[in-house]
Write a structure and sequence with these properties.
- The structure is a single chain.
- This protein has a domain of 85 residues: Orthogonal Bundle (T-fold), CATH 1.10.3980.10.
- The protein is α+β, with helices and mostly antiparallel strands.
- The strands form 5 sheets. Strands 2-3-7-8-11-16-17-18 form an 8-stranded antiparallel beta sheet. Strands 1-9-10 form a 3-stranded antiparallel beta sheet, with no helix packed on it.
Length: 328
Amino acid sequence: MYPLRHVAAVALPVIGLLAPTSPAWAEWLSDQQTIMGTVVRVELWSDDQPAGKAAIAAVMEEMRRIDRTMSTYKQDSDVSLINRNAAQKPVTISSELFDLIARSLQMSELTGGAFDITYASAGQLYDFHRKIKPSEHALAKALPAINYHHILLDRKRSSIKFSQIGVRIDLGGIAKGHAVDRSIALLQARAIKQAIVSAGGDSRIIGDHRGRPWVVGIRDPRQEGKVVAALPLSDAAVSTSGDYERYFEANGMRYHHIINPTNGRPVNGVRSVTVLGSDSTTMDALSTSVFVMGVEKGMALVERLTNVEAVIVDANGKMYYSAGLERR
């Protein structure tokens, strides 16, 4: 294991490694595109170039499909339809979206509400591009709508309803992880055995890098482009949440996109959280949850879970890591 001091957030693409000598028809193929508001990158090993390129294209299309369905920035997405209508009547949704929302609610229960997709009821009041934050009055008015118990799911009808006016959901804390997992499943169905798929801070690896581990760079949350440590990984999922992804500063404060559901304000006390486990959907939600919970409660949650590790950087730049990483 590489040293992990001063760890901040996952920085991709993966640091390149030399592959063993292989037949001319076998090679690493890669592509990256901007989808879901972030950089999506795929790299895989294939002994059939057309088949490998087709696999990468399938991943990119899957990412676009999920973006069309789950983006709150697209007015015709299924999530936007829910936000417009679910307070008035049940909205019928796909089994995929139903299951992901149900999984979000399970994460809410697991984390004691630290993960809550209804945070968007107040989160929508922030505009990080225009550097706009809500007034105290607007925030107080929005807070009663933040409560995952307001989400009513009917599995028999595959429908969702909100129990209160003003509720709004956002799957930004879990949808990218879901997209990565779906993409990995597509690659595995095409018999791809060595690959990495990443969408922003969420990555999942299948296999190794031709006999060596993949190396995922860890960056400093206050110095873009600076890699301060590296994690050698195989067959793993890794997710990072950081206060540097979408933010603005005003009056000496940093306003960022990770919102505390209890008060509708950006979380203080943590700069970044990186979690490692087996699937990206869970890791995506967990990195957000641990960020909201803070060092003590967040790390306690990680230690209760099986085969999950974490690295947390607090507001002072001090690093904390889970017992499993410490033993390494």
